[in-house]
Design goal:
- This protein has a single domain, classed as Winged helix-like DNA-binding domain superfamily/Winged helix DNA-binding domain (Arc Repressor Mutant, subunit A, Orthogonal Bundle).
- Helix content is about 65%, strand content about 5%.
- The protein has seven helices and two strands; from the N terminus they run αααααββαα.
- The protein has a two-stranded antiparallel sheet.
- The longest helix is centred in the N-terminal third of the chain and has 26 residues.
- Pfam families: MarR.
- GO terms for molecular function: DNA-binding transcription factor activity.
- This is Transcriptional regulator.
Length: about 170
């Protein structure tokens, strides 16, 4: 028995299993494809770009959020990364031990802390992100510019719809 089923195999099996159910198959296939694309791209980026730097996907997303937002509060980083504050604590501990991240207690409210990149963390992101973007380019290389524009707009609509429905972005 194969350990991996193609998208077509999965959709065929699901359609067969649910043939008598009153469901919106197009919606099921669309959302399933979003999940499969996200997982496939995440796996590709982790295996080809992040692993050589001994970085997990979550570790990268935390570094990226801090790099982009400057010195955000930990709760903002957890929300941006789509992880719990408890998970963030472990990631911050690991990234701090590697010398890439610094946690500073808020001077105005001791319940809050801010994260910032160390000089080594800044150097890592400045060197790593072009490699990351190269991986992104590989993933969309088979799309025409028009297809890429349509895909981006459609996915952004899904995200804004989820946000409008009150989807909790932190796990």
């Amino acid at each position: 028995m194969p350990s991996h089923h193609t998208l077509l195999e999965t959709e065929t099996l699901a359609s067969s299993k649910l043939a008598d159910a009153k469901i919106d198959v197009a919606a099921m296939h669309a959302v399933s494809s979003i999940h499969r694309a996200a997982n496939a791209s995440r796996n590709h980026m982790t295996n080809t770009v992040l692993r050589p730097h001994e970085l997990s996907w979550t570790g990268f997303v935390v570094l990226w959020s801090v790099w982009i937002y400057g010195e955000p509060e930990t709760r903002e980083v957890a929300e941006s990364a789509g992880i719990s504050k408890a998970t963030l604590s472990g990631v911050v501990k690991t990234l701090s031990a590697r010398g890439w991240l610094k946690r500073t207690q808020s001077s105005s409210d001791k319940r809050f802390a801010h994260l910032s990149l160390t000089p080594a963390g800044m150097t890592l992101m400045e060197e790593l992100f072009p490699q990351f973007n190269s991986g992104e380019q590989q993933l969309v290389a088979d799309l025409t510019p028009d297809e890429l524009t349509v895909l981006t707009k459609a996915l952004r609509k899904v995200v804004t719809t989820a946000e409008g429905l009150g989807a909790d972005t932190s796990v």
